[in-house]
Amino acid sequence: MRGRSRRRITGKVTFKARNGGADEDALQLELDDNRQFSLNKTNTMALINLYGRSTANWVGKTITLYVDPNVMFSGRLVGGVRVRIQDVTLHEQNAADIAEAMPDSPVL
Fold first, then answer.
1. Is the dihedral of CA 47, 52, 55, 61 positive or negative?
2. Which sequence spans correspond to the domains of the chain?
């Protein structure tokens, strides 16, 4: 991924348990480009702060993914993908939700 990538959460948000224990469990998002994106704790908290704890409310919302070279893992600087929530204002999201809910052809 280069730069930023705006993506819409299109499918359900699922919980993926991993064999390594609770520290390795993750939520996965299904995105509009048919890819799965596993959320780490930081990205999960960003989405909870924006859209609430109910993951059902996340479907249809737009997020921006970007590369953050300062991501740490196991005490090492490894870089990683972050969710940016400042790019989409509540007004923009509401307008997008309304436009999506409108019928394709006008009602006369």
1. negative
2. 4-101
Name all contacts of 46-49 with Cβ < 8 Å and 24+ positions apart: 46/82, 46/83, 46/85, 47/83, 47/85, 49/85
Q: Per residue of the chain (108 residues), give pLDDT as tens.
A: 555 677 878 777 887 765 555 555 678 888 888 888 888 888 888 888 888 888 888 888 888 888 889 988 889 999 998 887 654 555 555 666 666 666 655 555
CB 5 within 8 A of CB 65: yes
Provide the residue count of the chain.
Answer: 108
CA dist 14 and 20 (Å) reads: 18
CA 26, CA 11: separation in Å to the nearest integer? Answer: 16
